């Protein structure tokens, strides 16, 4: 599928030349444009960002000291792309109501559903939708009900847990 | 010294390269001034050329329809006048003649015309004399550029017609004007460049297609690739605009008015793209087929080589490329008519393909209204059909709304029906609320708690690990029937067990229970189950034991588990349907006894009865289970008796089970309550 590669190459060029804030993209294997490594920064206003000087500097904590957790994702573009939607999974464990808390890191976002996917939807919109999901969990549409429950009933505890796991896993390694 | 006229014309040709100088007559020139006003011009076409009213009725609708197909002009009809909004009007032709004394002494001669004459002669004369006036006012100097410029400015608002002035054009010129508008619009479109959203390449308008409904533009190549593929795969829903959210937004805005928003492309638009005739024909046929299949009242021709659908007023067989949209109103009407009994009327069906007239109840040649339907002959299924049905049973889950079987290829268990867009669970076929489908997997009370990602790799030998299908039975539409003989066999034996238990005295009863329990291969547990067999009159067994619901997945490919004691399994029978109103006794089968799957597989299948009429309620489904369970087996007599006893218990439970979850419509159907006694 030459046309699919051409389009993917274009989108890759677009995303790498003008990367959106907090999203880094690279190919898993330079010879294959279908598999992308994505590194997503946890949005600064979410528990998926970690404060570097967490214990000492509650008053000093400004934006420079807060750094997003580095979440690795794998984006796989089928050969039928863009006629078929891409598949995206979190490789880094995330404590989040809408992302499975296991080694698969599956999630359900509307744009990726086969019946909602349109060939002119772009990878960039998939990535920003994922980023958006980190900022704004949708507990009513949860995959992890226990986490959703916590998110709804005890936000403080949820944030603490999410932070803990972000520190533990989302190191970008 | 060079002629001043020559200098001026040279200048003008440099400014307007499209000007044509007459080679034979010097100082004669012609120029076409295109008219593309800022705002579209509303043009009225009175019904007849001379203004006399020929007919008191509105203009026939065909003219309106043709306007819409062209998609360029919007049409409204008020009384006997139809109006179109035109973006382009035929150009204004200007002939310039510069006489000898020009510019100092003689006025230039301007001649204006349009073809067809949509501007009146009087008006054009006025414009011409404006030119001379300008020449005078400017002090008798070169005026050609100024005049052309003023005409162009006038054309910007279509000589005043762009701003509310009514332009009335005789019918005679209507076609020419509309044609011009379409061609000019098309030409302008082809000159433009668009970024195709699919291949992301910039493309000339001439190789692009603009969606008629929403105006999104894609290149023809991408549209062809996508729609060809979608139609070939039968993925009709995808034949819509390819822009993200486009169809959805329109669906949202329309949903108030229409229940089913039309987001799919029309066949005529597909042909325009162009998509090949052959594929468009397939598209029309598939759409018709999908409509028939989603209508449970459809009956199919009993001739094996035909299998066409019976003629129906609601879903007309498409001719050519037109799609006859069924409207919901006629649906309601039919229901009203249906309540009145019309002898024979509802039985006679005529195949739309081979014109065979047959009875829609017994599927034999039409026997007239007053003849009883003859018993149905048992059709033989080919090996291939059997294998297909078997596969459907094992690796698909029917939609709870339309019963269309769905097979999961990958992903989570939240499914959306390809046919009717219902949300449902792949594991248990439960209907899921579209607003929050995952709730089903997050509630401990459902059998599918925390099982959203089970079978993520898909269902089927060819797509992933095997899965016993969410529901054991065939969907209602293709219920499998076991020949009568076996049905009686089951009924007799199972009845016998119940009858003996009920008729037995206290002492005898215990003895009998022991005997049956022994036959089942169970111990005291088995006996307990029999204790539930009502004394005397059949009553509901202990309901609280039935509260658990949700099937367990039966992995056919895995090594068969040792058969569990049959009897205790019965009270464990889950109660699906409590939450969704669609009881699925099939789940019980899976849960209760893996052996049954084997039996079912071994069961010879009788004729396939299509399109169960609505009256075939749950009772029939339950009976079907019974028949299925009654299939002959290779085991010994004892085991057979055990199975039959179990099946009878199961039927009874299934029926009682419905008792407390009965929907209002079922209450009218007394038959659904009866325990079948044969």
Automatic annotation (TrEMBL), chain A:
SUPFAM superfamilies: UBC-like. It comes from Hyphodiscus hymeniophilus. Residues 3-171 form the UBC core domain. InterPro entries: Ub_conjugating_enzyme, UBC, UBQ-conjugating_enzyme/RWD. Keywords: Ubl conjugation pathway. It holds the Pfam family UQ_con. This is Ubiquitin-conjugating enzyme E2 14. It comes from the Eukaryota.
UniProtKB/TrEMBL annotation, chain B:
Residues 324-334, 657-671 have a biased composition (Acidic residues). Residues 627-636 have a biased composition (Low complexity). Keywords: Metal-binding, Repeat, Transferase, Ubl conjugation pathway, Zinc, Zinc-finger. Belongs to the RBR family. RNF14 subfamily. It comes from the Eukaryota. Its EC number is 2.3.2.31. It comes from Hyphodiscus hymeniophilus. Residues 7-158 form the RWD domain. Residues 559-574 have a biased composition (Pro residues). InterPro entries: E3_UB_ligase_RBR, IBR_dom, Parkin-like_IBR, Rcat_RBR_RNF14, RWD_dom, TRIAD_supradom, UBQ-conjugating_enzyme/RWD, Znf_RING. Residues 192-452, 196-241 form the RING-type domain. This is RBR-type E3 ubiquitin transferase. Pathway: Protein modification; protein ubiquitination. GO terms for biological process: protein ubiquitination. Residues 317-338, 555-643, 657-678 are annotated as: Disordered. GO terms for molecular function: ubiquitin protein ligase activity; zinc ion binding. It is an enzyme of class 2 (transferase). It catalyses: [E2 ubiquitin-conjugating enzyme]-S-ubiquitinyl-L-cysteine + [acceptor protein]-L-lysine = [E2 ubiquitin-conjugating enzyme]-L-cysteine + [acceptor protein]-N(6)-ubiquitinyl-L-lysine. Residues 579-588 have a biased composition (Basic residues).
